[in-house]
Amino acid sequence: MDELFVAQNVMRLQKLGVTHILNAAEGNSFMHVNTSAEFYAGTGIRYHGVRANDTEQFSLSAFFEEGADFIDKALAHNNGKGE
Asked: Are 83 and 77 in contact (CB under 8 A)?
């Protein structure tokens, strides 16, 4: 299934039980997924985006800590202990 289609299909995400989305390709140009916190507003889905480019020159490591923090909060939420 096309991941872009699923990421932009809120009803499908809710049906799948998705509560959090970490988008490491945020943006609206080629090879990006055009979603944002505003896109998911009012859906109950929490969102964190990183405007990363899929190139050898882009260092995604600068975003590891904030991504890991978001994942930790998502896991705590899904275990009934957090946001």
From this structure: yes
Is this model's pTM higher than 0.90 or not?
no
Long-range (24+ apart) CB contacts under 8 A made by 12-16 are 13/43, 13/45, 14/43, 14/44, 14/45
| pLDDT at residue 67, as a whole number | 95
For the chain, list the domains and their CATH numbers.
Answer: 3-78 (3.90.190.10)
* 12 Cβ contact partners less than 8 Å away, ≥ 6 residues apart: 6
